[in-house]
Amino acid sequence: MDETAVNQQPDHLGASELGTKEHWDTTYVRELENFSSDPTDEGTIWFEDAGAEEKIAEFVVDTLQLVPANGTLEKGQLHGQDRSDTTLPHPRVLDLGTGNGHLLFALREEGGREMWNGAELVGVDYSPSSVELARKIWQQRRAAEAQEAEGEASECDNAEAFDQRSKGTTNSSETDPIRFMVWDVLNGDPNDLDLAEGFDLVLDKGTFDAVSLSREPFDHYQGRRTCEVFPERVVPLIKPGGYFLVTSCNWTEAELRQWFEGLSGFRLFSTIQYPSFSFGGQRGQSVSSVCFQRVESGRSD
């Protein structure tokens, strides 16, 4: 894709109730009620038919290698730099528009929970009901992990070995690997996220889709649409060399590149492939996942 095509934004989507906060507040109030009645009902998993969560988790572990086995990276890349036998710092991951938190749960299970010991996984959403639901689901999952660990302890002859295997399953809030908070990517103060240098990885599974369906103008951004403001709000959340992985059912890979690549401070890093289909002589995917890397200069070259 040439530079002109990248820097030319696609046509806007039509407005929809899916682009309103009222819709998502109502949705998560209902899903909270459903979860309270049936703890096995954790709510909607977006893009489940395409297996998006599994593919995203595999990509993060196998391609980005943020948490290689045993905490070392033998032959791979960390923030775009070739590394060999390098001990990784604990990665920081931010999930924008976390909903029920399911993507972070799937990510932590990929490759084994022990790989994520010491990591910081943060899910944010502008709907308080969403955050309440995610916290309740996480509390239930943590209780199940603790019960599982107790069962393993009763069967484990080597107490020291068990201690190493069970790290990260404690219920202590000081070591909780996942936390959820109410925060709006379009209006929130990044300092509320303990931003420091930024996150190693920011995830977006459907949030930009919802933002793109809103017609709300931003007065303090010269009246631009929310989808036009979104990319520049995401960039500062990511440390230089870090990654932004966006998954969409409304935008193609080429269109996502137009929105985020080039002037926004990202360069294309990789994509995730899904089953394709043919229609009208054209081939496409029902879901697109594109990974961008933040460049220090703010340019894609």
What does this structure look like?
The protein has 301 residues and is an alpha/beta fold. It has 9 helices and 13 strands. It has helices at residues 3-7, 21-37, 52-64, 102-109, 128-155, 159-166, 207-212, 226-234, 253-260, and strands spanning 72-78, 81-87, 92-96, 120-125, 178-182, 199-205, 217-218, 224-225, 238-248, 266-272, 276-279, 282-285, 288-294. The strands form 4 sheets. Strands 5-4-3-6-9-13-10 form a 7-stranded mixed β-sheet, with helices on both faces. Strand 1 and strand 2 form a beta hairpin. Helix 2 runs parallel beside helix 5 and helix 3 packs across helix 4. It starts with a helix and ends in a 7-residue tail after the last strand. 34% of the residues are buried.
Short description:
This protein is 34% helix and 25% strand. With 301 residues, the protein is an alpha/beta fold. The strands form four sheets. It has a seven-stranded mixed sheet with strand order 5-4-3-6-9-13-10, with helices on both faces.
